[in-house]
# Entry
Amino acid sequence: MPELPEVETVRTGLEAALKGATIRKVTLKRKDLRVPFPKNFAQTLSGRTIKTIGRRAKYLLVYLDSDDVLIAHLGMTGRFSVEPKPPKSFTAHDHVIFELQDGRAVIFNDARRFGLMQLTKKEALARHSLFAHLGPEPFDKAFSPEYLQAALAKRKTPVKVALMDQELVVGVGNIYASEALFLAQVDPRKPAHKATKRAKPMVEAIQRVLKDAIASGGSSLRDFLHVTGYTGDFQHRFQVYGRRDKSCFVCGQPVRTIRQAGRSTFFCAGCQK
DNA sequence: CGGCAAACCTGCGAGC
DNA sequence: TGCTCGCAGGTTTGCC
# Structure
């Protein structure tokens, strides 16, 4: 999936394409993704005009003129595409088709179905169960070195696992956790509570890597595409992710890979202490 | 409660 | 060529 930079790239693309558009018809090809679609999903969205598209953590928020909000998560493989007209035939894993008043169609495709779509009302958004336990946005002033220091002090889990916890800070997933720790020169295996004095470089590294990735249009691995089909190119600038046994660009030592909480972590033992 | 493995589901590349 | 295995950007659940 998409981590924050990819979701933000999709948000930008969808907003440019869809702001002001009216949804004419919604077709569900199945009744669920990771969770069931809400009852009245199609009825609620039909006839609505899209006011704007926002993001909270890795969730897209489609604000409608009725004050309903469509919450969408891309999971690992979710993709939106905007087509000039509804396709005659659908490819595998096209799950939702939004036909627009102007004749275009928006397709949501998600092979693994780890994504989700839910509906809420604008005024209920902040207390929605999906958002109740989320930490600060990485670019919010609440995500300060002092905050991170205090949050890490409470945890014994490895610092990389802590940074991926959406309750600590949102938007950082497996790729950018490895990349940020490399930039901050922090060993991902270090217990969180022993990394507290590195909080400031970690905050700076997280913000920098996410910002640079957004500026590059995100990273494209197997299946992330822009709304337009154009692929991001930040993956060419990974320092450690996916570079097992390759030389560290800084010190030349081979990049190591380990498994933490079920996820692959890449790091340079020479640079990260 | 904290920490971690497994589960959800499909596709794809590597290796045999 | 074709099969099996392991792994993939996330999140939730359930077990110690």
Q: What stands out?
A: Residues 1-3, 6, 34, 58, 73-77, 112, 114-116, 164, 166, 173-176, 219, 221-224, 263-264 of chain A lie near DNA strand C (CB under 10 Å from a C1').
